[in-house]
Amino acid sequence: MPKSINVADCMNRHPLTFRPDTDLLLAIEQLLSHRLAAAPVVDEHAQVVGVLSAGDCLRAILAATYHDTVGGSVCNYMSSDVETVRAHADLSQVAERFLHGARHSLPVVEDGRLLGVISRHDVLKGLQAFAQPAAKAPAHV
C-alpha cells in the first residue's frame, strides 16, 4: 500500500462542467439533476474560468424575482475567483482544506486546464480505503 494518496487517485475524471455561455436555467437544472452544489466553468481549451455554485444560482434567482427577469448566461453569475488543487497534491492536505473552508468540491487543474474534480465525498472514500487494515496473511500451521 502506498504511503500517501494523491488527488489523482480519487478525483472524478468526468465531472459536470459548464461553458461561460451556458444558459443559467439549464445549468441549474443540471446541478439539481446531478445533485451537485457546484461545477467548474471552462472555456473551449478546458481552462477553468469560474465555478457556478448553488449559492450563485440562488443569488441569480432571488435577483430575478425582484427584477422580473430570469435567465442569462452562466458567465454573468459564476464566481471567477476559483480555488483549485493540483492532481499530485496529497489527499490529507485536501482534507485539511475542506475542514477549514466552505468548499465542498475543488477543480483539479494542471496549468489551468481542468483534469477533474475532487469532492469531500471523494476524499472521504480515499482516506477510508487508505485506513482499511491490510488483509492479514494466513496463519502458518
How would you sum up this structure, described in words?
There is one protein chain. With 141 residues, the protein is α+β, with helices and mostly antiparallel strands. It has one domain: CBS-domain. 33% of the residues lie in helices and 18% in strands. The chain is built from four helices and five strands. The protein has a three-stranded mixed β-sheet with strand order 3-4-5. Strands 1-2 form a two-stranded antiparallel sheet. α3 (91-100) crosses α4. The model has no long low-confidence stretch (mean pLDDT 89).
**Helix percentage range:** 25-40%
Radius of gyration: 18 Å
Average pLDDT, rounded to a whole number, is 89
Extended strand count: 5
Please tell me the CATH architecture by its name. Answer: Roll
CA distance, first residue to last residue: 26 Å
Query: What is the number of independent domains?
Result: 1
Strand order of the largest sheet: 3-4-5
CATH fold assignment:
CBS-domain
Q: What is the overall number of helices?
A: 4
Reading off the top of the CATH hierarchy, the class is best stated as: Alpha Beta
CATH superfamily: CBS-domain
Q: What structural class is derived from the secondary structure elements?
A: alpha+beta
Shape: elongated
Q: Indicate the low-confidence ranges by residue numbers.
A: none
Q: Characterize the largest beta sheet: strand count, sense, and whether it forms a barrel.
A: 3 strands, mixed
SSE order, as H and E?
A: HEEHEHEEH
